[in-house]
Each structure stands twice: as structure tokens, then as C-alpha cells.
Design goal:
371 residues; globular; 14 helices; MutS, DNA mismatch repair protein, domain I; DNA polymerase, domain 1; 3 domains; 4-stranded antiparallel beta sheet; Dna Ligase, domain 1; alpha+beta; 5-stranded mixed beta sheet
Amino acid sequence: MYPPSQLPPVRRIIHIDMDAFYASVEQRDDPGLRGRPVAVGGSRERGVVAAASYEARRFGVHSAMPSVTARRQCPDLIFVPPRFDVYKAVSRQIHDIFARYTALIQPLSLDEAYLDVTSPLLDRGSATAIAEEIRSSIHAETGLTASAGVSYNKFLAKLASDHRKPDGLFVITPKMGPAFVETLQVGKFHGVGPVTAARMNALGIRTGLDLRAQSPAFLAEHFGKAAEYYYGVARGLDNRPVEAGRVRKSLGSETTFTKELRDWQQVEPALDPLFTKVWDACVRGNHAGRTVTVKVKHADFHQITRSRSGTVSIGSREELRQISLELLRPCFPPPLGVRLLGVTLSNFGADPAPERAQLALELALSGRDGS
């Protein structure tokens, strides 16, 4: 315990999230796209939406959605090929603005970051004033809008930035934190994905207040290593620091089945959304990886993994899909039913030919990868 005179200061954390970043850049640069439903990505049959404008989102179009589905939901949808060089240049502008106020910047992707302004380089009297000034500078210097969340930890700052999107700012103070969390659906918690949310719902945990009522032992039994995190955030607590220069090591996704898989024919349809999710996250974060890992968990919870590494980065979603399926094929038919499958891409930043990898990323998303 700290003596009262040595208590650590309450941290001041800002989460900045650009509004529909890729699509907004396209609408900024082409006045004919403004006010119209826009999707950045490939329009061909196997294309994927990388980003959607707010006009498109009203029709249910969202990132990682197959282009054919997006077109079906919004017949007037305009597809625009991605321009990663432009997005990266704008992202650098935005991060230069962040750096005026603090050196403690943790980028999450080209369009999203945490800032610790507990001891800012430019003090404006409060984190709220700094966040508002950053938003104003972003709009003045890039023509784009950003949403900001301000709070005393990363978990609540991210919730706050989501609360008033787009083009909004929201503050969650230490007095507000626990009450704000208790009314929130657990599916809205950062770090609780759809599968975990469904598991929590099945256990009668639907809101932050329900989660707060669970003991550490109960959470550990059902959620393993994540139990400590869930126990804390249900109380508005999160001790994770803003990690400047943090390097992402891997990106992955997994799915748990309500009915166990046994037939090989079931595998590819089940994994298709995972390939899209992982690939979209890699493109958004500008990550290129050389190692593909698949995970298989059987009905008795026995787990196996298989990996393959190449000399250059995976160049397309199709290549990720093909390698993953080749790794999984020898695992079928399984000795027991399969209850979980996962796919991970790792070994980032070690590509001897980054230009080739980036070009492949762009071609894949724009539907020009030969597929």
C-alpha cells in the first residue's frame, strides 16, 4: 500500500479513433463521394470490405463483410480501391499532432491510438481540453473528424470514444466509472468477443453488474487467464499502461462451435469469416507476417497446433486460407469432434521484401490478386 502522501496520480488517458478513416479519406479527396455510401475494398466476387462510410453503415455494411453481401444490402454502394500510401501519410500527420502533447503514444492501427497525458508536453489544464484541441487540429490539418474518449484508464477511454461517435468527445471520470460499466452489455466490453459474450450470457452474465457479481474463482474457472482482467474492468479498473512503441507480434481469431465438427467439408465454411477477420486486421494495422498457425481443440479439450513459416510475408487472404487449410487437412477426420478452430498470422516485420508484401495486400483487398 502507498502512504497517503505517496499515492500515484490518477492517470489521464485519451483514446482517439478516426471516424470511418479509409472511407472518410476517399470522400475528402473525391467530392463526388460525399454523402454517398462508400466501401473501400474489392468489388469482385471474392472481394472484402476494408472500411465503410457512415452512409453505407446505415444499410448494415461493415468492415470484413464479403463484397457480394455488402452489394446485396446496399445496391447503390460505391466501391473504391484502397490507397494505403495515402492512408499512411494521413496517419503520420495525425500522429505528429499527438506528439505535440505526449511521447506516450500507443498506436493500435493507422486510425486509432491511446495517449497518456498525465504529464503532458503541452498542458491545457485537463485531458479533456487536450483531447478537444487534438480533435480540432486533426480537422483543421487533415479535413477529417475524430472521436475521443477521456478517462483514468485505457478500458474506459476506449468505451468513452465509442460513446459519442462520430465526431464526438466523452469523458468518464473516476466517480462515473463503476456506474458506467454496470449498465453496459458485456458484448460492448473491449476484450470480450462474440464467442466470450455468448459464453457469459449462457452463464447469466449479461451486464457489467452481472460480471461484477462473480467471484475471482468463478471467473478463473470459466475464463482462465482473462479472469483477472474481467474482474477489474467490471469495477471500472484497468492497470494496463500506455505502451509507447509497442510492437504487435501476432493477429489471430478463433471460433467455438455449438455443435462439434467432424467432417472436412464443414471446415472451410466455418473458417471463412476467420480468414477475413485476420486478413482485414493485418491490412488495417499494416502488418505483414510470415508464419501461419492453426489451432484445433477437441471435445475432450485436448489442443493441437500446426504452423508453417515462409521466407516472405503472406501476400493475400487467399494465401492465408490455402496454407491454413493445408495445415488442417491432416487433422481430419479427427479422433473426437472438434469444438474450436483458430487461425493466427505472426512473425511480423521480418520480410526481406516489404514492398512486395504491401503490394500484395493492396491487390488482395482491391480484388486484383488474380482470384
